[in-house]
Amino acid sequence: MELSSPKESFTDLPEESCGSSRNGDGVPPLFIDHNAPRTDAVDLKRIEAAVRVILDAVGEDPDREGLLETPARVARMYAEMFAGLHSDPARHLSKVFTEEYDEIVLVRDISFCSMCEHHLLPFTGKAHIAYLPSGKVVGLSKLARVVEEVARRPQVQERMTQTIADMVEDRLSAKGVAVVCEATHSCMTMRGVRKPGSLCLTSAMRGAFRDDPKSRAEVLGLINREA
Ligand SMILES: Nc1nc2c(ncn2[C@@H]2O[C@H](COP(=O)(O)OP(=O)(O)OP(=O)(O)O)[C@@H](O)[C@H]2O)c(=O)[nH]1
Ligand SMILES: [Zn+2]
C-alpha cells in the first residue's frame, strides 16, 4: 500500500515552488519559507464556485453581505489545510548528521490538525515520535515539520500515523521507530454520534519497537510518562 500517497514525484520541484512564493495579488512576499509546503497548487476558483453552491443548497444567500467573501476565505482555508498533498514531507529528514548516540530520541506532544477524509472535518491532537538512531540523527524540529505537513491531507488517523513512521524509518535508517497519535475527531464530537471527550489513539511501531517487547515497553513508558 502506498502510504505517503503524493500523486506525483515531488523530488524535482524547483525550490521556489515550496512556500508562499506569491500571494493572490501577485505581490512578492516579504520572505520565502522554503520549509513550507505549497499552497499554490490548489484551484481556488473552483472551490469558491463549489462553496457558493453549498451555501445556496443549504438555504443561504451567497450574495448577502456577510457571506460575500466566504467562498474565497474557504478556498484559502482548503489550500492551507491540504497543502500537504503537494509536497513531500520526507524532505525535512534529508539533512541528517552523524552522532554516536544509540538510545531513544523522543519528541513528544507535537500538536497537529488534520482533516478526516470521510467528512472533511478536522481531527486535532498530538503526535509523539521516537526513534533509535543507527549513527544518524536529525534536527528535532524536522520531526515536528514532518507531522505538520503529513497532517495537511484528507486522511484517516491510522494512515497518518503509518506515513510518519515509514518516513522516519526510511530516511534515518533507524533501528526502531515508534509513532503514537492521539486525536479528537470533530465528526464524532460535533455531529453524528456526538461524543465530546472521546479520544482516538493510534500507533505505528517499526524495527526494535515492534519486535522487542522491552524496547516497546520502554518507549511507551516515556511517551506516557507524566511530564
Ligand atoms: N478508522 C477511522 N475512522 C474514522 C476516522 N475519521 C472518521 N472516521 C469514521 O469514518 C466513519 C464513516 O462512516 P460512515 O457510516 O460511512 O459515515 P456516517 O454515516 O457519517 O457515520 P457516522 O459518523 O457514524 O454518522 C465513521 O465511523 C467515522 O467515525 C479515522 O481517522 N479513522
Ligand atoms: Zn469523519
TrEMBL record:
Entry superkingdom: Bacteria
GO molecular function list: GTP binding; GTP cyclohydrolase I activity; zinc ion binding
Pfam family of the protein (one): GTP_cyclohydroI
Statement: the UniProt record of this protein carries the keyword GTP-binding: yes
An example Gene Ontology CC term for this record: cytoplasm
GO biological process, any: tetrahydrobiopterin biosynthetic process
Region feature (Disordered): 1-32
EC number: 3.5.4.16
Hydrolase as UniProt keyword: yes
PROSITE patterns assigned: GTP_CYCLOHYDROL_1_1, GTP_CYCLOHYDROL_1_2
Record's catalysed reaction(s): GTP + H2O = 7,8-dihydroneopterin 3'-triphosphate + formate + H(+)
Catalytic class of the enzyme: hydrolase
Domain GTP cyclohydrolase I: residue ranges: 47-223
PANTHER family linked: GTP CYCLOHYDROLASE 1 (PTHR11109:SF7), GTP CYCLOHYDROLASE I (PTHR11109)
UniProt protein name: GTP cyclohydrolase 1
Species for this entry: Novipirellula aureliae
